[in-house]
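As a warm-up, study this chain.
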Amino acid sequence: MKVYKIFLLPGLLALASYTSNAQTASQPLVITVDAKNTAQTIHNFGASGCWFSEGIGKYWPVATREKMAELLFSKAKAADGSPKGIGLSAWRFNIGGGTAEQGDSSGIKDFRKRVECFLSSDGTYDWNKQAGYQWFLRKAKTYGVENLIAFSNTPPVQFNQNGRGFKTVKDYKANLKPDKYNAYADFLTEVIKHFDKEGLHFNYISPVNEPQWDWSNKPGEASQEGSPWSNADIHKVITAVDASLEKKKLSSQILTTEAAMLTYMYSGKSSASKQIQNFYTDTAKLSFNTLKHVPRFIAGHSYFTDSGDSSIVAVRKTLADTASKYGIEYWQSEYSMLGDGFREGSKEKRSQIDCALFLAKMINQDLTVGNAAAWQLWNAWEPGSAEFDTRYYLLALKPANAEYTNGDFAITKNLWAMGNYSLFVRPGMKRVSTGRNDGLSAVKVAQDVMVAAFTGGKDKLVMVIINYTDKVRDIVPELKNLKTVKQYQTYVTSANAADNLKPSGIQKFNKTISLLPRSVTTVVFN
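Now compare it with the structure written out below.
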């Protein structure tokens, strides 16, 4: 090979560099969308009401909680076309273990995180328990939320080895007494049966939650209800719940395993790891494949797998590949910014739009790289600031007293950023794979313009686009097999005070769509 030396004058070199950068910045990003190139079917977008719903639903002013419910569940629009809510299509209801009745002796230090149990120690049921939680459950149903999900963090305390809703010994073994698996299953299905009669059908029941954590603490220092479960424990309890559902002729399906991190679903060496391989292989000892009420999907939580773009992409790519290999879907069933990944290296407080953009980014990554078929936030509301480090919630609670019997709330940009997905990407829509003309790797895309596209049938298309950069960006959607697309409307969430899913007018589709800096834009075609 011959080597040629080329000399450029400094001025010409600078000019060449400037010209190249200017061309890159001025060239619109072409996004190719082929309606026939579909990926996963979307089941729902949701959130839960733990734990603060109990006090709010029981005691807070009706007008306040009505507004909170509207913001979460409504699909209606105001006179100016702006959404009244984010139209969640799933709501997670926590079935408590009875730590609230135990009071301070429960060992859980925060009274707000103790939860009542429908089953009393004498074996009778009291359906007036969890009245606050039930208030929001009924509101979800009234607003037409398509999927109601019941989940349990612990069996009833009277079924547990230590009589508590958490572990006091760090041994990673289930707290449930060995002879109470059928009793626990019967309890869960009795709850399902009762609410079915009330017209509140739970589409899914989740018997275990984050089974990889040890959930142990000293009495008085526990943070919440919880229990570890090994894969063998999980198989035993899921089998018992499946049999109980079948015996009572209930149609609810079982959501499992609610893995504490995505990586536990395909790797690891603990007794609760490699859950896809252990539960969804026909020949595996712990296979779920013969159970009638266990659908072919596995649920996991995106906590602590959100630090660094390379890791974010790699974890989700491996998860998607593993799920595909075993012929199952993946649901992301809990997330908030528990770790510091959302800071992206910054030591300063993160503004609410920074948090909202990171939330939108994680949803995008779970959907487009991980192929998640459902996406659920952990808590809809918690106490905290609405301006900075809004890492845990959509609505920031402002309690008026220490007992949480009154209060108000503030809306965060997280609400609207999630709404860019939940309000427009409805159950049954299919994600459409997209292409782009800038040649960026999946890792670099996570700091640039991120796109997720969904089709709802013939010539119906929704695109959710995140402009993660601090510059206006133009995109050109190149649509294939979408012959009659002639117009579109945008809904924008940005740092601007008025940009809360702010609608545009209906516009003629002339290819180029501009994106505000640091924004999330939903484009609804036709």
